[in-house]
Amino acid sequence: MSADAQPRALSRAQIERFVRDGFVRVERAFSPELAAAGRAILWRNLPCKPDDPASWTHPVVRLGEYHDEPFERAVNSPVLHVAFDQLVGTGRWWPRRSLGTFPVRFPHSDDPRDTGWHVDVSFPGPTSSWEERKDFSDWRANLTSHGRALLMLFLFSDVGENDAPTRIKVGSHRDVARLLHPAGDDGLSHHELGKFGAELQSLEALATGCAGDVYLCHPFLVHAAQMHRGREPRFLAQPPLHPREAFRLDRADEAYSPVEMAIRRALQEG
User: Fold this and answer.
1) Angle at Cα 136 formed by Cα 135 and Cα 137, nearest 5°?
2) How far apart are CA 159 and CA 207, in angstroms?
3) If you write DSSP's letter for every residue of 137-162 in order, what string do you get?
4) Which helix (H) or strand (E) holds 224?
5) Is 187 left (phi over 0), alpha (psi -120 to 50) or beta?
6) Residue 14: beta bridge partners?
7) Domains located in the chain, CATH noted
């Protein structure tokens, strides 16, 4: 493969912004054609029709795990694999074969009732379990981000400011790192982290972009959904990237990934 054919990498400035702000947008991470093929599959499982807005009777419909070719190709694009290596570390993450849940949002006047600020949690607490995922309020996150290397937002449709883009509290991953530090391996619950995120004062950003763009986010980033005020349904996947190993904040060789660097800087800023 020639040098010109190598997948592009994140620039040094993009990596530094990730460490500082908690997210980076990878433009055209996968093709618009793959996005369109993915939407066609999702429409087949929706209880409404793409050409009949009168059938869009729910503000959000959640679709489950998808392993179809467009989704597998999207999450395994060469550009994203390079970015995963750059942000998490080569050999420190597991490849995915699916894209998890799709919360498809529709233009609707009803409150979807799922728009609270939160941090994604990744392991069960004492009142929940892997087998019975009923009490998500007690699922947790900890300082080494057990079970989650990145939060990812895959745009399968164009998303403008009115199209229910994910809201992001810029730099909130640093505040969450400092909050998690004294909690140790047990971490904090979804409820505790959500309460903190809602009260946190921070500049807000919107995860807008084109179909095929992907936002790679620090796992501690505070974010939230919102009502759809546009005209066309919004298709987005929000899977985690799973780690092969826990984050380490005391590496003897100091080969810290940007995800780890962000946590270390937050604790040093104290």
Assistant:
1) 90
2) 8
3) GG-EE-TT-TT-SEEEEEESS-B-TT
4) strand 223-224
5) left
6) none
7) 18-244 (2.60.120.620)
Closest CA to 105 of 147, 48, 66: 48
Cβ-based neighbour number of residue 51 at 10 Å: 6
Measured CA to CA in angstroms, residue 199 lies from 78, 137, 176, 196 at distances of: 38, 18, 12, 5
If one counts every other C-beta atom within 10 angstroms of the C-beta of residue 103, the result is 18
Interatomic CA distance for residues 25 and 18, integer angstroms:
9
Backbone φ, ψ for residue 49 (5° rounding): -120, 140
Residues 39-93 have pLDDT tens digits of 999 999 999 999 999 999 999 999 988 999 999 999 999 999 999 999 999 999 9
pLDDT tens, 156-191? 999 999 999 999 999 999 999 999 999 999 999 999
Question: Is this structure's pTM higher than 0.90?
Answer: yes
The secondary structure of 70-105 as a DSSP string is: HHHHHHT-HHHHHHHHHHH-TTSBPPPS----EEEE
Q: How far is Cα 140 from Cα 73, in angstroms, rounded to an integer?
A: 30
In angstroms, the CA 158 to CA 114 distance is 21
